[in-house]
Amino acid sequence: MIKRALKNINLLHSFECAARHQSYSKAAAELCISQAAVSQQMRQLEENLTIQLFLRKGKSMLLTQQGKTLLSGTQQAFKVLEESINKITVEEIAGSLTISSTQAFTTLWLMPKLSKFSALYPDINIRVMSSPQFEDLKEQHIDLAIRFGPRVKENTDTSLNCEYFGEDPVYPVCSAALAKSINFKAPKDLLKTWLVSLDNPGCYDWPSWFEYTNTQGYQNHQQWTEVHSTDMALNAVLNGHGFTLAARYLIIEQLKSGQLVMPVNIPHPNVVKRYFVYDENSAKIARLNIFIQWLTQEMNSTN
User: Fold this and answer.
1) Which residues pair with 244 in a beta bridge?
2) Is the pTM of this model over 0.90?
3) What is the tens place of the pLDDT at every residue in 241-288?
4) How far apart are CA 21 and CA 38, in angstroms?
């Protein structure tokens, strides 16, 4: 019975995926096969073992106690296999990497600097995805996610490495032209103009900044503009449309050039924490380490 179960390791690979997701459809998406194929493989594995591994409950496939035991064993076994293969093979640096991050970071920071990386490492091809969500790296075939905020660790799969690599303050900024036309000296002076906010600002919101600066009357302010992402907010502000709140790493070049200014130089009470999220047992780990080291050095040199 054990030999029959181990004869086709692909069944165990499919089982680990289906059990981890508790869904045949999600497993099918990650494995790039049909849901029917996953279902057939699980029936075959159960027949080989002569035990039931799953119980259907609605759209979810719950594990039996035997299924839970097998999941733990397969995950440990695959991890040992990955580590062993990595030790005995020499990875080629040349190849591809899929990077995911927020639209603001990819548009304002990564893409303008990507030519520097490509000049240093022309054999590494970078594919960039932007999303505000905490994607499933395995299902979406993402090698590295660059994530920001206070709840990254708790929203990251425990099987992945979540590596903190610094933090940045958030400031209210406006265009140099607007700062010349209106005398902004105190936090309350920002209420003289438009305030640009994200429609989902999280903990980096205007009310928290005004409360932190003991500004009265901001609740009655009428000139608000809501946008979907920070790059949209900064585009509006660069063209003279009031103030927005932005992390310093996103606006460092515009501050240096004088396009953006901080006439009221008081940071938001909440800082932006930065994290790399990746599988440390990835077959692309050497390539990943090169990109991570380059990005960290670039952020430290510009900040």
Assistant:
1) 173, 196
2) no
3) 999 999 999 999 999 999 999 999 999 999 999 999 999 989 899 999
4) 12
**152 vs 157: CA distance, rounded Å:** 10
How far is residue 223's CA from residue 194's CA, in Å, rounded to a whole number? 5
Using N-to-C axis directions, what is the helix angle for 9-21 and 35-49, rounded to 10°? 110
Q: Which two tokens stand for residue 209?
A: 């900044």
Q: What are the pLDDT digits (tens) for 233-254?
A: 999 999 999 999 999 999 999 9
Quote the pLDDT of residue 3.
Answer: 46
Kindly report the number of other CB atoms within 10 A of residue 15's CB atom.
25
Indicate whether 88 pLDDT > 80.
no
Query: What domains lie within the chain, and their CATH numbers?
Result: 2-88 (1.10.10.10), 95-167+272-302 (3.40.190.10), 170-261 (3.40.190.10)
* Structure-token pair, residue 32: 């790039």
